[in-house]
Amino acid sequence: MAGTNMDLLRFATAGSVDDGKSTLIGRLLLDSKSIFEDQLEAVEATSEAKGYDYTDLALLTDGLRSEREQGITIDVAYRYFATPNRKFIIADTPGHVQYTRNMVTGASTADLGLVLVDARQGLTEQSRRHAVILSLLRVPHLVLAVNKMDLVDFDQTIYENIYREFTQFATKLNVPDLEVIPISALQGDNVVTRSENMPWYSGPTLMHHLEHVHVASDRDLIDARFPVQYVVRPKSDEFHDYRGYAGQVAGGVLKPGDEVVVLPSGMTSKISKIDLFDKEIPEAFPPMSVTVHLEDDVDVSRGDMIARVKNAPVPSQDIDAMICWMTTSPLQPRQKLAIKHTTRTGRALVKDIQYRLDVNTLHRDQATNELGVNEIGRVTLRTTVPLLCDPYSKNRTTGSFILIDEATGVTVGAGMING
Amino acid sequence: MTQTHSDYRLSQLDQLEAESIHIFREVAAEFEKPVLMFSGGKDSIVMMRLAEKAFYPAKIPFPVLQVDTGYDFPEVLATRDNWVDRLGVKLIVASVEQAIKDGIVVDDGKTSRNRLQIGTLLNAIEENGFTAAFGGGRRDEEKARAKERVYSHRDEFGQWDPKNQRPELWSLYNGRLHEGEHMRIFPISNWTELDIWDYIGREGIEIPSIYFSHQRRVFQRDGMLLSESEHNPLRDGEVAEERTVRFRTVGDLTLTGCVESTASTIPEIIEEVAVARVTERGATRGDDRFSEAAMEDRKKEGYF
User: Which of A267, A394, B115, B198 could form a disulfide with A298 if both were Cys (CB 3.0 to 4.6 A apart)?
Assistant: First the structure.
């Protein structure tokens, strides 16, 4: 079948308003033949009605009425395209003021972050901010696309200066893999096809890099983590004694025969079998959704975690984390919020705001006593239930949580556990 | 079928399946009264399959809801019944005809059945007290859908507010609701039309026969090929004739067009979809043609 054995890459794009992000996405979609004629015709008709003398590819991605009216992107949108070997999910994050919150949202699930800079401007405060957020969110691969090379006569020195400045800056961050690619999104140079205008560049085209970057090894296959999501108990005649623990593997490899501990109770048992729908499988790894069976009849329910006996997360009610605050009323000490971590929910009390991180300079402002919208800071929380935590740097699933305002029900914070 | 690999890679279809199953289980665990919107079309059939897998060997722990326009294809209703029987789930039918009789929605003779589904659906959700309704919407279908969250919050009027959506981080979904509100859940948001067909092929599951090439009496209207039917009287100048066609989407038969095609097996359909130059909705859905933001406007009112 056409796509059954394809690979999947999720990437988040970042860029400020005029750096050509929509044009680049339009170009990737157009050149991978992922834009359909009816969509293109609609965009052409709208461009013409608006009196443009060109087809505004941004209209492809700005899907909402109010976005089209105002010519701005309001919210993260997800786009899809595929090449013969890989399917791509783009989290297209807007570059205006509501920036940090949207980028955090898009970057939370991304394997790769794509930051655009305008070759004429060089690195701006925003490009640095994009990189800082992507590194905080532990997006393992980063691409800096130096766009609009056509407007600087495809000058090698300009590219090299940006390259040097950025790699120097990146040493302060956690960026395990960085690629810097000179492109022209408008003319298509080095996007899908190699540019004849930049013979001095010997690296991959953007599409080639997206197609070949190795992402499977980014998952933690060492530390077995299985948050129990749902207990399957058919209670039918045929499956009278069936009791399976359903969930999505968050880390490591689980195998029948493994000695495991159930947290937070600390009861130990052995995995007797692992089911994937109606089949027993020899092992399960992230991000598989499976059903695990234990040899002993221990009490296990939603919110518990199954881990290896000698390698388990530490249950803790005192959480030290970086928080991205996402709502207009500020986060303050003594505030009480609902918290969701893996399949576990409880309440959290804000004990202390240690500092606010300036995402432009990486300066830590310790004098602060609150976090405003789109700000990131280090916070300590006390929770009503113990969370089964790993450092976010070790596992993006067991190291992350969200904070919910109990009055409005809105998600107000994104947390990454330190340690 | 899924295989484990020495390098611990999952194919994209397996990753999508794992993500969707995670969403189904999350909703079943956290919501008081979920329901699965099931039309009998290909997307909702894939959803049924995913729900079946999520809770196996237990039965799907929620009922399914079909909004019957009264103008549905009989082949689709037959498939709907087969699925419901096989899985032993409870089927609730919300009938547009009945809603018109009960004065819940008003048939002024101009409003399409598709639009009348909105009020009928919202009434069914309210009457049954559903707090979460799974829908088979995919983000690749339409530009307004590309903006929608997996958990799409609806107020007590069933309205979607695209400007005020909850941020969705990692796979940590927030299902908090106030009295009277509900959540629309889209477990196959990240699937494309091609993924759906690949999956149907891989799983070998039953879909309505009208997706495959067949002979049908059709006529042309607004650039679409519509089925001849008592619900769809021919207008002046329209002539019905027999053609070899198949459907890419199924909905109300007065608005759902077919395409000329000889694809009669899943691999042939996959081949056809892979090279299609027009989206399924652009090709065959009259309801999206009313205005540039037709889908967004309907969604704001409570359409799924």
Answer: A267
Q: What is the pLDDT of residues B273-286, one digit of tens each?
A: 877 777 776 656 56
* Sequence-ordered list of residues with C-beta below 8 angstroms from that of B26, at least 6 positions apart, any chain: A229, A343, B173, B175
Contact B184, B220 (CB under 8 A): no
CB contact at 8 A, A385 and A349: no
Q: Which residues from chain A sit within 8 angstroms of residue B267, using beta carbons?
A: 1
Cβ-Cβ contacts under 8 Å for B39 (sequence gap 6 or more): B66, B67, B72, B76, B80, B136, B250, B251
Tokens read off for A86: 């890989």
Task: Compute the distance between CA of residue A224 and CA of residue A28 in angstroms, rounded to an integer.
Answer: 37
Residues 6+ apart with CB under 8 A from B209: B75, B79
Output Rg (C-alpha) for chain A, integer angstroms.
Answer: 24
pLDDT at B215 over 80: yes
**Whole-number Å distance between alpha carbons of A56 and A46:** 9
* Residues A226-253: tens digit of each pLDDT: 999 999 999 888 888 899 999 999 999 9
Interchain proximity A409–B140, CB inside 8 Å: no
Model confidence, pTM:
0.93
The burial class, CB within 10 Å (0-12 / 13-18 / 19+), for A160 is: middle
CB–CB contact B8 A281 (8 Å): no
Q: CB distance from A240 to chain B under 8 Å?
A: no
Quick check: B107 and B95 in contact, CB under 8 A? Answer: no
For residue B4, what pLDDT is reported?
A: 46
Q: Which residues of B touch A109 (CB under 8 A)?
A: 170-171
Chain-chain contact of B19 with A287 (C-beta, under 8 angstroms): yes
Give the distance from residue B97's alpha carbon to the nearest chain A alpha carbon, in angstroms.
32
- Amino acid identity for residue A405 in this structure: D
Interchain CB contact of B56 with A (< 8 Å): yes
| Alpha carbons B22 and A250: distance in angstroms, whole number | 12
For tokens 């209209």, what's the residue?
Answer: A59
The secondary structure of residue B265, as a DSSP letter, is: S
**How many whole angstroms separate alpha carbon A130 and alpha carbon A94?**
12
| DSSP type of residue B60 | P
The CA distances from residue B112 to A142, B109, B257, B294, in Å, are 49, 8, 15, 13
**How far, in Å, CA of A230 to CA of A228, rounded?**
6
Pick left, alpha or beta for residue A128 (phi over 0 → left; psi -120 to 50 → alpha; otherwise beta): alpha
The Cα–Cα gap between B60 and B50 comes to 10
Which positions in chain A touch B13 (Cβ < 8 Å)?
3-4, 6
Residue A60, classed as helix, strand or coil, is helix
Tokens at residue A45, please?
């008709």
DSSP state of A311: B
Q: Which helix (H) or strand (E) holds B36?
A: strand B34-37
